[in-house]
Design brief:
- With 112 residues, this protein is mainly β.
- The chain has a single domain, classed as Beta Barrel (Thrombin, subunit H).
- It has a six-stranded antiparallel β-barrel.
- Strand 1 and strand 2 form a beta hairpin.
- The N and C termini lie far apart (55 Å).
- The N terminus is likely disordered.
């Protein structure tokens, strides 16, 4: 299966990203396929159609996932690629990355 076949929201076209990605580090929770356990992961980059996480587990391309993102909640997706310690996920539907990266009010330092 090619990465652009994974999902309607797939972020790849001919092996190249279609949307810009923001490099960042934030945490999220993910459930692979029909697992009952939520795993905490680090999100390393993010776009409207996909993200890359750090996870020390192998997952087959096409594996359904549910990822819980701050500011959005649960989002469905599929594994687009997997390599040692990192997994690319194509999201379906597309998301607004700013909702995930926007600081919460409690995270904004007070002004003097």
């Amino acid at each position: 299966m090619r990465p652009d076949d994974v999902s309607n929201g797939a972020d790849f076209e001919g092996g190249k990203r279609r949307r810009p990605r923001d490099s960042l580090v934030l945490t999220a929770q993910i459930r692979l396929d029909n697992e009952t356990v939520l795993r905490e992961v680090r999100v390393r980059n993010l776009s409207a159609g996909g993200l890359m996480i750090e996870l020390d587990q192998v997952a087959d391309v096409g594996t359904p996932v549910t990822i819980t993102l701050r500011g959005i909640g649960d989002v469905q997706g599929k594994v687009a690629w997997c390599t040692e310690g990192r997994i690319g996920i194509a999201l379906d539907p597309l998301i607004d990355p700013e909702k995930v990266t926007k600081p919460r009010v409690s995270e904004i330092p007070p002004t003097a």
